[in-house]
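Please decode residue identities from the backbone states below.
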């Protein structure tokens, strides 16, 4: 009986250790996910006027103009969000490399060049979106669009 008790206590101790390791892993991954979610931060105090409601109410877009906006916005949001995510990932890689024990300047230069290309692409996509919207605006709508 004494040997059986020792085995049972050993199994219980092993299960407790496994449970603690599992709980620790869950907390660790939740914390990592929270840090990743904070990578893209938008200024919530500044309203984003470039919504469908803004174009419909403030600029007076008709149905045809709204359809052009929706199509352009769908494409813009898809591409822009991908680029922003990739840019944030590159920034994280750069930060890790900079804070490593032996930072590789060649890798840092490559990462910054890659980040610059993504930034330029994001600006080009933004310009294309703006020009697409501007192309369907009349003169008074163009003036109000400039103020947005």
């Amino acid at each position: 009986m004494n040997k059986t008790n020792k085995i049972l206590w050993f199994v219980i101790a092993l299960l407790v250790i496994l449970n603690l390791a599992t709980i620790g892993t869950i907390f660790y991954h939740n914390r990592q996910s929270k840090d990743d979610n904070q990578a893209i931060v938008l200024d919530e105090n500044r309203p984003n006027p470039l919504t469908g409601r803004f174009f419909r109410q403030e600029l007076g877009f008709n149905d045809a103009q709204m359809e052009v906006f929706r199509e352009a916005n769908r494409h813009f949001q898809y591409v822009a969000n991908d680029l922003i995510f990739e840019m944030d990932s590159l920034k994280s890689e750069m930060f890790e490399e900079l804070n490593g024990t032996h930072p590789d300047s060649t890798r840092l230069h490559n990462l910054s060049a890659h980040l610059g290309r993504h930034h330029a692409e994001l600006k080009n996509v933004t310009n294309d979106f703006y020009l697409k919207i501007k192309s369907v605006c009349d003169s008074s709508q163009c003036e109000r669009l400039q103020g947005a």
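Observation: Confidence is low (pLDDT under 50) at residues 37-44.
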